[in-house]
Each structure stands twice: as structure tokens, then as C-alpha cells.
Amino acid sequence: MDTESAAPAPEPLPLAGITVVAVEQAVSAPFATRQLADLGARVIKVERPDGGDFARAYDTTAHGLASHFVWANRGKESLALDLKDPRGREILHSLLTGADVFVQNLAQGAAARLGLDSAALCARYPRLVAVDVSGYGAEGPYAHKRAYDMLVQCEAGLVSVTGTPEQPVKAGIPAADIAAAMYAFSGVLAALLRRGVTERGGRVEVSMLDALAEWMGHPLHHTMHGGEQPVRTGLAHAVIAPYDAYATADGDRVLLSVQNDREWRRLAQQVLEQPELAEDPGYATNAARTGNREKTDAVVAQALGRLGADEAIGRLEAAGIACARLNSVAQLAAHPQLAARDRWQDVGSPAGPLRALLPPIGLPGGAAPHMGAVPALGEHTETLLRALGMTDAQISELRREGVVA
User: What's the whole-model pTM score?
Assistant: First the structure.
């Protein structure tokens, strides 16, 4: 073989060789550890024997499995373990002796009662990166307050800036959970980098409120320094017009954004086919258009309402106007850009193959991301216990007594 022309071997996944133990449930911690699994880490998911992660029971829409669980838990090993039993905690600590990362998002105070808070674990395992994910943080008047995603969206003010002038609404995705997950994920990476220098792990703390409050940066700074909260504008923009979604003749909606007066002239001439509006004092400047928003929107809506969505987008793009189709979730699943870039891959599950998106982090020249199967509850219990040196008799006894499943 011509060695000079042979393709170089792909670089290994960056977290290959890293072991993560997670006592996790719902979305925030599981979504964080799924990112680690995608990058090559071995993730051992510790679940209650009596039903496991409660997100398993949210719904049955993914071929009988819960859509939240399928999304956040691929590529993990499931260990069904009763941590309230001392024998269960002993097993967990046996795993932690060889682990690099521990992640938990139990109710506030529960991990500390079990001796599994980050402070206790880092004192016992100096090289361990230990992550506490909470709703509101470990201290303060809200520390023990229930912290579901929608509640934190409300507390963080996200709901107050989302929706129409008449009606505030929550985000349609679990924004607080996702925000906390991504900061926990990046916190683990940072702590692992530091460990490479200091040879010591350390604590990582992330709260859903802190994470979402950071994401509220623009409206927060606008309000603190400008004195007024940005108004809710639905799909419109508070200070730019036209900037909204408009119905097309075939029942779709197309969003367009005119960023400056040059673009308005092109829109008027090439899309609206009303060139006289390009220099009309009532429309020629953004200040005029925002002050005359209802008439501006009516003109654009009338023109796009005569076109199908494809024709409208074609005209807008030809005129150099930023635009997008207001897609449904089903249209996202069939999005031509995702298909053209091969962003879909099947993953295994107890219900058979399920379609899943590749991770957003691309590593050109590296090994393919780890797209492992979604585990059944306790699917890996026996394998993990055998690896710890337990005999068949010991495992059977633990099963009979409900310590493992």
C-alpha cells in the first residue's frame, strides 16, 4: 500500500478514556452528560430501581419511549441502584474510585444527606470533578424551592419578554434546563483542563436560575441601564420594520427582516412591486416605518399574501432580504439543510432504531461522535457489578433485596 497517499487515522474523541458517573434525572444533568457521552466519555447513569429516571415516564411518543429521555440519554450505561441502602452507596463509591467526573441534580439537600455533594466527594476523591446542578443554588432564600423549568423561566423573567403585547408565554423548549446543562457541560471541560495542570479535580456548581439569568443579558442590561423593560413584540422587532412573519397564499408564513433603508428600497421594488414606496416619506426610513408600523405591515402582508411561500422566499432572496420559512417541528425534521449535510443518524434503543441528530460540535478529522444506544433501565447493572468483582450470588442477593435492578 502507498503509505504516502493513505488517509491519516482519525483523531480519537476528546473525552475518550474519561469516566462519568451521574445520579441524574429529568433534563438538566442528563442533557449535560449526554454531551460528554457524544464526545467519547463513558457515562454511567445511576437510576432508582423502582422506575428509574422519572423522565422515562413523561410520555410514550418515541416508539413507546419518552421523547425527553430518548433525547437526553443516548450513549449511556444504566445502573439501577438504591442509594438509600448503604450497600447501594458502597457500590457507587466503588465506581467513583475510578471515575473522573460525578454529576448530580437531586433535589436540594438530597445529595448532601447521602454524602454525595461536591464538597464531600472532592475531599474524598481529590482528582474527581464533582458537579452539583440545582435550581437556585445551594444558599439563599430560594435554595430549597422547587425548580421545574417553567418555574425558573418565570423567576428569570424570560416569560415576561416572550410572547405578544397582550400575552406573555414560556419558551416552547426547556430553556432553563438546557442553559444549566450547557454550563455544566462546559464547566466539566474547564475543570478537566485545569486538572491536567494541577492534577486535582474540583467542584463545579451550576444553577438553572444563574444560567438563564445570564441568557437574559440583553433585556436585563437594557432594563438596568435604560430604565425600561423591552416590550413583547411576538415575532416583530421592537425598533425595526418590517420585521415579522407574514402569511402566504398557500397557508405558510414567511419571516423577513429589513435591516436598513437600502434593503427597504429593494423590497419595495423587487418584492412588493410598488417602487413608489421606496422614496415615500411615510416608508423611506426605518423611523418612518416603525412609526407607521401598521400600514407598513399591511403593505408587506398584502404583497406576500398573493404569493406561495416558495415564490415569496425566492423573491426575497433574489432581492437580498433576510428571510426564513416559519417551520413547524415536522418541517424541521424534514429540513433540506439537515438532510443535505447528513445530520441524521439512527441510534439503538429498547424500542429499536430511533432517528437522532448528530451533535452540534463538529470535530473535522476526528473520530465520529459516539451515538450510543438509549439504555433500558438497569440494562448494564450486571455488567457493571461484575466489573467491580461481584459474584453471581452477591448480585442475586442484591436483586432479591431491591438494592439493584
Answer: 0.94
Question: What's phi and psi for 227, nearest 5 deg?
Answer: 90, -10
Q: How far apart are CA 135 and CA 103, in angstroms?
A: 14
Q: Is 344 left (phi over 0), alpha (psi -120 to 50) or beta?
A: beta
Strands 42-47 and 19-23: parallel
- Contact (CB, 8 A) for 88 and 405: no
**What 3-state class would DSSP assign to 342?**
coil
Using the predicted structure, report yes or no on whether residue 360 has a pLDDT greater than 90: yes
What lies within 8 Å, CB to CB, of 215 at 6+ separation is: 158, 175, 179
Q: Which three three-digit cell numbers place residue 24? A: 441524574
Q: How far apart are CA 68 and CA 287, in angstroms?
A: 45
Whole-number percent of the chain with pLDDT over 90 = 95
- pLDDT of 238: 83
Residue 253: which H helix or E strand, with range? strand 253-257
Torsion-angle region of residue 48: left (phi > 0), alpha (psi -120 to 50) or beta? beta
